[in-house]
Amino acid sequence: MRVEFFLLMAALLFTIGCVGVLVRRNAIVILMCIELMLNAVNLTFAAFAHENQSMAGHVFVFFVMTVAAAEAAVGLAIVIALFRRRRTTDVEDASLMRW
Amino acid sequence: MMLRLLWLIPLLPFAGFLLNGLLGARYLTRRAVALVACAAVLASFAISVGAVLELHNFAPTPAETDAGSPARFTQTLFEWMPMGTTPEGADLTVRWGYSLDPLSAVMILVVTGIGFLIHVYSIGYMEHEPRAGFARFFSYLNLFMGMMLTLVLGASLPVVFVGWEGVGLCSYLLIGFWYDRMFDETTKMSCADAGRKAFITNRIGDVGFLLGMLLLFTAAGTLDIQAILARAGALGTGVCTAAALLLFLGACGKSAQIPLYVWLPDAMAGPTPVSALIHAATMVTAGVYVTCRMAPLYVQAPAAMLSVTVVGALTALFAAIIGTAQDDIKKVLAYSTVSQLGYMMLAAGVGAFSASIFHLMTHAFFKALLFLGAGSVIHAMSGEQNIWRMGGLRRHLPLTHATFAVAVLAIAGIPPFAGFFSKDAILAGVLALAGQAGSPALLAVWAAGVLTAGLTAFYMTRLYLLVFAGVPRMPEEARHHLHESPPVMTRPLIVLALGAAVAGFVGVPEFLGGGSLPNWLQVYLSGTVPSFHPDSGVIYLSEWSAMAIALLVSVAGIAAAWAMYGRRPLPAPAAAAEARGFVRLIKEKFFVDEAIDALVLAPYRWLCRASAAFDEKVVDGLVNAAAAATDLASQLLRLVQTGYVAGYAFAFFLGTVVVLFFVMR
Amino acid sequence: MVLLLGLIAVVAVFALARTFVPARTVPVGAALGAVMVALVAYDHQELASLEFWSGLIGFVAIMSALLVVIHPNPMVSVLFLILNLFCIALFFLILNAQFLAVIQVIIYAGAIMVLFVFVVMLLNLKAEEGLRLGGGPQRSGAVVLGVAFAALMFYAIRNRGAAPYFEPESFDSGFGTARGIGRLLFTRYQFAFEAASILLIAAMIGAVVLAKRKLR
């Protein structure tokens, strides 16, 4: 089995996640797309760890999962706070970053 | 033992300044403030007396004593500017040190002694001042004492310069003490303006002092005064002349010589004790002191000596002429001070340094007395200063009158009062130099000196007659308020009057005293300042006849004044204000202030306005243009800032793709 | 290879049929099921090959990812994301990363996705209205960018030089086990491990503070 297959798969998933972030307006779906991208990266790590026979890649996957968990928790909390205040999860309604 | 405490002499008044300045206005009573201030100065005076007495028996090393160098005690406190040594091994380090020798001994005794009397007097004079102002006044006075003592005791030029600038600062602060009051209604000059005028005029002189100091540092490789003076002979005439002239420019500013004298008459805006202490007795003599201190340098530079002589003589005569027509009691005394300072400079210029210091000392006594007497009069008159609204005060202020009369006789040069001896010593010095050089031109300087003496006698008598003699010219109401000053003010007057009467006997010339009464002061100072021994050359006038002529001119001045102002009842103030021709010229002080305004200040103001316009239009324009450009760019970039996160993410992704493209190409 | 491509084609035909002739779904489905059986019968050897299963999992992963992005209903998106995560867990297994596969299921599918499900249900989100692919300049631009990005990635992977071909069986037995990862985590990466724990605490406190009813 060639490692390139997994790399291509990861690249495709990553691209899909990226496009999803840009296309969707629902904040929860955007968070999900980000999870998708993180998973694509995890796959790449695992593939390279396999190729190099080094477990360092696995450790990194572990840390990425930690970050993903933290990010999901905080991100969802923000979404809840936003929803409470504005009754929406649409990022285009939340344009407070404009001065 | 007292010599070891030398460092305390400037420090004690400084401690008083800190105490009164920090706590006085809020936590101390008036009595405590006055006590702190006076005690600090009195302690300084006591240490000074002890140290000077001890100096008499002090010999640093036998070798120095053998070399004939005078007793000198130098105390180095710390290394102020450790600059190391030159490759040749010369020590560049500047140390903070004090040195006591006969010259500075005379100075510290005068400064602390008269300073103490004026402090005591101020307690009475400033009694109507609110407590905060009272504390402020005494803290300034103490600061002044500390700075002045630093100036006279400083062993190296930078230390002297610190004191020099410090007294200038105190002068500024005290002239503008009543900063919210108007000083001169006709010219719209406030007291604060007068302080600024004094400070800025002094600044011009200070630049000269600083440059001279740096020149000496470059040339001699040291800033220690004694080291510089020891090397003065090796510096060459050119360097000596330049340095001496630059230092003299500083002295001109501080000691109010032509052309920088204009600040002193306006310095009368300060309280009268300040005028007595700073602008008559001590600070203004700092220029004379530094000139005498650097005397070995001046001796190497004949051209500089000549300049000092000419400037001093011109100042003496010019100010005396102006003094004859002033109507303000303090202005008369101010121009008198300028004139007498010119006298001292004249003495230094002809090389009679000990005579210069002698006159400095006697002048400190009688001019302080005159100012304090004037203060007493003003106090009694509730602030009135115009002598045409006074008259007949003799009956109301007997003590003030008596002491003032002593001072007038002293400054007029009537024997045996102090001014007679010191003035005579100066005139004798001029005459002797003229004889030694065989130069009749110096006789003109002598004549100017004699004429000044006559004019001095004239205007002082005029002042005395208008204030104390004749009939009262003040309004009826003011006449009832007349009262003699309290003892706290009159007692210093009595002490000063004693000094003004007998201080001259420390310097009786040899031909008068003979063998029985030596010229103490000259002997005392002989090792410190270059001695003057005019034993050769032409004798234009014998000492006796010269003295007789000077005395005669003085008496003539008194007589003329009596003839004009004392013989008959004088007209009312309104009529007296009329003046035409030459008298008006004198009254308006030869329009010197106006000339300076037109010739120096007007172009300067124009330059300032031009610079301001340049700054506003060009410099600010460039700055504003930069700001406007930034603003424009920001306004354009603002359009991109939609606030939609998706848009930002899109831009981010776009950037990523572009970067990746270029990385992988 | 025939089996894999055939299966993909069958699924594609089924999807098209459901889209365009929804009424005939059942007969079309039955026909396609018969085609699948035929395909397996024709090439049953391929069922034992790693390439076949990898390809099948990859196909499912890509499809589920696309559905996450495309589907208007967030709840459906979450479920397809879970499917996607399972696919990736299988990939981990193929890559000899057993421990990762396990924690992928436990942490991702088990914990994080539950969080998502909870939030979606808590907020009671309806299907997103007006979801149009290719609508508006930014959306079409995003798709174009995505294609460009994928092309770049393909180009990069294609040109990464000769890579060795690995036999998974040749690996030493410790690779990918919990013991191996644990040894690394608690020796070489101990600092990062501790930092990650602090990060988790921070995230936990942040989440609590943010989600509190009153921000005060």
Percent of residues in helices of chain C comes to over 70%
Alpha-carbon distance between the termini of chain C? 62 Å
What is the strand content of chain C?
under 5%
| CATH topology title of the domain at 71-126 and 172-216 in chain C | Four Helix Bundle (Hemerythrin (Met), subunit A)
State the share of residues found in helices of chain B, binned by percent.
over 70%
CATH class of the domain at 71-126 and 172-216 in chain C: Mainly Alpha
Strand count of chain C: 0
Q: Number of helix segments of chain C?
A: 8
Largest chain interface and its two residue counts?
A-C, 66 and 83 residues
Rg over CA atoms of chain B: 29 Å
Mean pLDDT across the residues of chain B is 86
The parts of chain C where pLDDT drops under 50 for at least 5 residues are none
How many individual β-strands of chain B? 4
Q: Hey, roughly how much beta strand do the residues of chain B contain?
A: under 5%
Residue-averaged pLDDT of chain C, rounded? 83
Spans of chain B of at least 5 consecutive residues whose pLDDT stays below 50 are: 63-67
Estimate the global geometry of chain C from the Cα principal axes.
globular
The CATH architecture of the domain at 71-126 and 172-216 in chain C comes to: Up-down Bundle
- End-to-end gap of chain B: 91 Å
